[in-house]
Amino acid sequence: VLTKEPGSETYRATYSDSGKDSAMTFYRSSDGRFYQASGLKGGGLIRHIDKPYSELREGDAGYDEELLDITDDSPLLEDILASLSEDLYPTSEENVQSIYKKYQSGDAAAGETEVVLCRGTIGPQAENIVSFKTAGGIEGGDVEVLPVSAEIAQEQVRSGRIVPEYTTDLSVADRFSREHYLIIVKVKVRYLTRGSVSESGWVMPKNTPVDPVGIIDRTYGKAENTGQANASK
């Protein structure tokens, strides 16, 4: 049973398992869907090594008999993630925007809502994001960190390599992670600033606390060219 909190789009619920109760909160977006804001967590980080078409077997996601001679490409991320876990799917751009606008309009509860975003980056940085649980893979996550200013966000869009930029768009993540790594995280909306509109980008400070939910090696067993990484830090 969801109980609505007065003057907010936040709802409370209790999950019971083996006599133990866990408090959970949900945020209702403009399309009527509910998103978990806090409480019960999932099954932990999912690791996966993406295989090229040449190594896929009948029954594997994206298998195509006519593509078995391709050693440096793989099925679309959408197909890969569908075979792993629905928890790895980014939150839709429409819903991130809806929750973000609510927060910008003064709804503090909306800012506490976690959304799922992803980005392509080099292997060492992806592992640092997992280890340090920060958007930029640096030590010292700060729960009180303020969002990136609009000016810095625009500089990131123009020049790149300034602040971490994540996306809701799997086609963008597919492009930047190919021959590199894909990192997927949960992050609270209050840390976000609009990034590249055309790439459905969202920027945040390097020391933003994140909850890594997935890391996918897309190097196809080859040495990674670290000079061709994502244009964000």
| Low-confidence regions | none
User: How much is the average pLDDT?
Assistant: 86
Query: Based on DSSP secondary structure assignment, what is the total number of beta strands?
Result: 11
Provide the succession of SSEs: EEEEEHHHEHHEHEEEE
Q: Name the assembly state.
A: single chain
Structurally, how many domains make up the residues?
Answer: 1
Helix content: 10-25%
Quick summary:
The protein has 233 residues and is an alpha+beta fold. The protein contains 6 helices and 11 strands. The chain has one domain (43-217).
What does this structure look like?
The protein has one domain (43-217). The longest helix is centred in the middle third of the chain and has 12 residues, at 93-104. With 233 residues, the protein is of the alpha+beta class. The protein is 22% helix and 25% strand. The model has no long low-confidence stretch (mean pLDDT 86). It has a four-stranded antiparallel sheet, with no helix packed on it.
